Structure formats: structure tokens, C-alpha cells
Amino acid sequence: MRIDGILARWNDQRGFGFIAPTNGGPDVFVHISAFPLDGSRPVQGERLSFEIITGEDGTKRAHALQRPDRPPRSHPHPASPRHPEKRSRGFFSQLILLIVFGLLAYAAYTYYTRHATAGHSLVSPAEDNAAPVRPVSTPRIDAPATPAYKCDGRIHCTQMTSCAEATWFLRNCPGVKMDGNNDGVPCERQWCG
């Protein structure tokens, strides 16, 4: 049987108080656990509806409290989160996951662009309205080419055997005397004229 009453005394630090029944009679003990889990603390003087049960020690206490002056809440928990650190941890783990995904996507893109088939265009011929792209063969270079000539002390045109040899000596060897007019063309009378 439900009884109406008013919360006459409340000790918020200890979590209990006493309800004075509206129809009279002795005050009834109430513990915080009897209140609905609606996120609001008990307030002295508020109206309550309750049932009475007898504890193991024979004392009567309030049970299954209702607050008739307060509309029932759609959410049993308070609006603010009880554990904001859990929410922030979830945000940071999602952020880290997003960063890792971005790095993997960047690595895949870099790998693809570096290892794309040599000579193939990434744009199809239909897209650029041009003839099909043919693979370009690159010459194979096994070792650096060694020069056919070397600076061996020859400095005059009479010591050369060709225009190419005289040009190489003029560009690469110090102290040569093969360009009298300083126009960059050696041995113009003998070989390069």
C-alpha cells in the first residue's frame, strides 16, 4: 500500500533521512537507495509517495519512492556524463586511428606513384585526346664513360690529330695554346676551320 508524505529531515552527507506521512503517524526512515535514479538529490520538504517495508532488525523504512511533483525523465541518467574521461579516451583513440589510416593511405599512394609501370601514362588516351602513349626505352648505363683523351702535356695545335681532340684539350686541360682569338674554337687553321 502506497503512502504519501513529506521529506521532513535529510542528512545529505550520510545519505538518509525521515519522511513524515501526510495521514499522520511516526516518521519513516528512508535511505538514498530508495530514491529513483533520476540524477537529482533529495530535497527537504519535497512530496514523496512510498511503500513501507520492515527490515531484518524489525524497523520500518520507506521503499520504492516516487516523486509526484517531478515529471518522469526520459533518461534515467543525468544529462552530464558521469565519466568524461571515458569519452575523451574514446575521442583520442578515434583520432589516433584516423591519423594511422591517413599515414597508411599516404604510404600506399607514394608506393603506387613510385612503382607505377614505367612508360605508361596515368591518363588514358581517351581522356587526353592524344595518340596512345608508347613506352619509352631508357638507355642502360653500366659504367661511366671514360674520356678518350687525357691531359698529357700537349698544348699546341700541331700536337693534335683532330678537331674533337683539340676541343677536348681546350675545355679540360690547363695551359693550352690553341685558341689565339679567344672565340672558344681551337685550331681554326689546322683542324676546326
CATH third-tier fold name of the domain at 2-66: OB fold (Dihydrolipoamide Acetyltransferase, E2P)
Across the major sheet, the strand order is: 3-2-1-4-5
Please summarize the sheet with the most strands.
Answer: 5 strands, antiparallel
Strand segment count: 5
Q: What is the overall pLDDT average?
A: 79
In terms of quaternary structure, the protein is: single chain
Helical residues, percent: 10-25%
Question: Which CATH-level-2 architecture of the domain at 2-66?
Answer: Beta Barrel
Shape: rod-shaped
- Helix/strand order, N-terminal first: EEEEEHHH
The CATH superfamily of the domain at 2-66 turns out to be: Nucleic acid-binding proteins
- Broad structural category: alpha+beta
Give the uncertain stretches in residue-range form.
none
**Backbone CA Rg:** 49 Å
The helix count comes to 3
What's the end-to-end separation, in Å? 129 Å
Q: β content, as a range?
A: 15-25%
**Class of the domain at 2-66, according to the CATH hierarchy?**
Mainly Beta
GO cellular component, one term: cytosol
Keywords: Membrane, Transmembrane, Transmembrane helix
GO molecular function: nucleic acid binding
Transmembrane segments: 91-112
